[in-house]
Amino acid sequence: TAITMIYPELKGKLNGIAVRVPLLNASLTDAVFQVRRPTSVEEVNRLFQDAADGELAGILGYEERPLVSSDFVNDPRSSIVDAASTMVVDETLVKVLAWYDNEWGYVNRMVELAQKVARAL
User: Fold this and answer.
1) Cα R_g (the chain), whole angstroms
2) Tens of pLDDT along the chain (121 residues)?
């Protein structure tokens, strides 16, 4: 996957797909990964919620409401974890689904990057 180009230490430990739904711009990422120690759905979701409320606020979202793909169109965050869909099998195999606006979230990150570059110049 492309993420292993950025984080080579994840090679062979992470796999996922992005599912294009029949709706303009909203997409779904399906990520499956194996963890080293036993975990639970509650722990995985808590970690994502903490990140979304903390250092990744505005970039990562966390949602417990039963939303549909159209609810994520024009969402400026890069990814919104669908907490109700998180699964853990045999305590170490984790599946996380995350929604995103295929264009708007990306554009927001590009604007932030351009602003950082401009401030550095």
Assistant:
1) 15
2) 677 777 888 777 776 666 665 666 788 888 999 999 999 999 999 999 999 999 999 999 999 999 888 899 899 999 999 999 999 999 999 999 999 998 898 899 999 999 999 999 9
**Domain range 3-120, its CATH number among 3.20.80.10, 3.30.360.10, 3.40.50.300, 3.40.640.10:** 3.30.360.10
Helix (H) or strand (E) holding 32: strand 26-34
Percent helix, percent strand, percent coil in the chain, to nearest 5: 35, 30, 35
